[in-house]
Design a protein that fits this description.
By secondary structure, this protein is an alpha/beta fold. It has 3 domains: 131 residues, Response regulator (Rossmann fold); 96 residues, Phosphorylase Kinase, domain 1, CATH 3.30.200; 167 residues, Transferase(Phosphotransferase) domain 1 (Transferase(Phosphotransferase), domain 1, Orthogonal Bundle). The protein contains 14 helices and 14 strands. A 5-stranded parallel beta sheet has the order 2-1-3-4-5, with helices on both faces. Strands 6-7-8-10-9 form a 5-stranded antiparallel beta sheet, with helices on one face. Helix 9 packs antiparallel against helix 11. The relative contact order is 0.09.
Length: 416
């Protein structure tokens, strides 16, 4: 593994090289001082690098210019931009110039740098495979350490013909979720089965069947793929793609850079645009319902509470409060019908959590959260993140009329 460090400061280059070797002891770190050696394009033409660490100093423009030049080169490696200072404008410009990530020097740790580089290199490899037609993104058979996934099967685990259940990986109020293997070809996937105690409840049964119908109507790379659905006797099930990259909740716990937060938000906005264009509202968007493929791309899952705005359905009554209080919109808290802007409020709560590193309204309980969503002031971001406050304010506006009016509008504001 070989990295190129482009930085005017010898101390910074030395520190970055040390962080790289803390994660990859055998890695080679080539240092490049642009003041003495000029444009690093010569190094890129001569050597093949796994990734580039690029300093954005002295004033940001040189770094962004160098970044754009690097990304125009054929087979250019992923570039992580390092800056002493950075606001929303710089982060968005870095994303538009092609940065894989944007990290403030004050936030750097060996773990955080390694995670940013691993994500960047993984995404770069997936894009390379997609360009050559060698990548199979949705149905795979890969070696798994089952001891690290979910929990052992219980005695009451359901048997679905044609599938071999391997581990239990989730359980909610309506369904149980299993990692499984399709017997005919060994493909790993997820089986979601309605809780046996609810299968005679017509409302829950309709919601479960409706979830499949909604998901298959949406075609977007950031929405979970469904392979099959059916009944095993009286037991309904849905077979979906397995997402081995974990949840957004876990990534937030590990720490997310501002550029990664912007990129994730723009990708989720793309998914919401596809969902809303089908007149569907998710109604339960939260970090636990955003998972990652092996490539690192986020995927929205769990449409169990989603609603088709065109459907003549009585599954939700006026005044009925659904979803997770932590991420509910003010109108949902008041039992009013949700629309696309309700999902954008939920995305705002997620964006705040990614940027600030803490949950919206802290550790407030469910009842207090409902009150705060409706009446509480939108929290202020720390000074070094103040440039993101406008995005937070528009997403978390109490009145839906004051929010971004569509996911497409949000995407146009922050995306490449």
């Amino acid at each position: 593994m070989r990295f190129l460090i482009v930085d005017e400061s010898s101390e910074s280059r030395l520190a970055l090289a040390g962080m790289l070797r803390a994660r990859w002891p055998e890695a080679q770190a080539d240092e490049w001082d642009p003041r003495q050696r000029g444009d690093p394009a010569a190094a890129l033409a001569r050597e093949r690098y796994s990734a580039v660490l690029l300093d954005s100093q002295p004033a940001g423009e040189d770094g962004l210019r160098r970044l754009a030049q690097m990304r125009r080169r054929p087979q250019a490696p992923p570039v992580v931009l390092i800056a002493d200072h950075g606001d929303t404008h710089v982060a968005i410009q870095a994303m538009k110039a092609g940065a894989a990530d944007f990290l403030r020097r004050a936030d750097l740790t060996p773990e955080r740098l390694a995670r940013a580089l691993e994500d960047a290199m993984r995404e770069h490899e997936v894009r390379r495979q997609e360009s050559t037609g060698t990548h199979a993104p949705f149905a795979r058979t890969v070696p798994l350490d089952l001891r690290r996934i979910g929990a052992p099967l219980r005695n009451d685990a359901l048997s679905i013909p044609g599938y071999r259940s391997l581990r239990m990986i989730g359980e909610g109020g309506m369904a149980k979720v299993y990692l499984a293997e399709r017997i005919q070809d060994g493909i790993q996937l997820v089986l979601k089965v309605l809780d046996p105690g609810l299968r005679r409840d017509s409302t829950f049964l309709q919601r479960f069947v409706r979830e499949y119908q909604l998901i298959v109507s949406i075609e977007n790379e950031h929405v979970a793929r469904v392979f099959e659905h059916g009944f095993a006797g009286e037991q309904p099930y849905i077979a979906m793609e397995y997402l081995p990259g974990g949840t957004l909740a876990a990534r937030i716990h590990e720490g997310i850079s501002s550029l990664a937060a912007l990129r994730l938000t723009s990708q989720i906005a793309k998914a919401l645009d596809a969902i809303h264009s089908r007149d569907i509202v998710h109604r339960d968007l939260k970090p636990q319902n955003i998972m990652f493929r092996e490539s690192g791309r986020p995927v929205i899952v769990d449409f169990g509470l989603a609603k088709d705005l065109d459907a003549d359905s009585n599954l939700t009554r006026f005044g009925e409060v659904l979803a997770t209080p932590r991420y509910m919109s003010p109108e949902q808290c008041m039992g009013q019908p949700a629309d696309a802007r309700s999902d954008l409020y939920s995305l705002g709560a997620i964006f705040y959590e990614m940027i600030a590193g803490q949950r919206l309204f802290g550790d407030a309980g469910p009842a207090d959260l409902v009150y705060l969503h409706v009446h509480g002031e939108i929290p202020r971001l720390p000074a070094h993140l103040a440039g993101y406050q406008t995005i937070v304010d528009r997403l978390l506006a109490k009145r839906r009329e004051d929010r971004f009016q569509s996911a497409r509008e949000l995407f146009a504001t922050i995306a490449v």
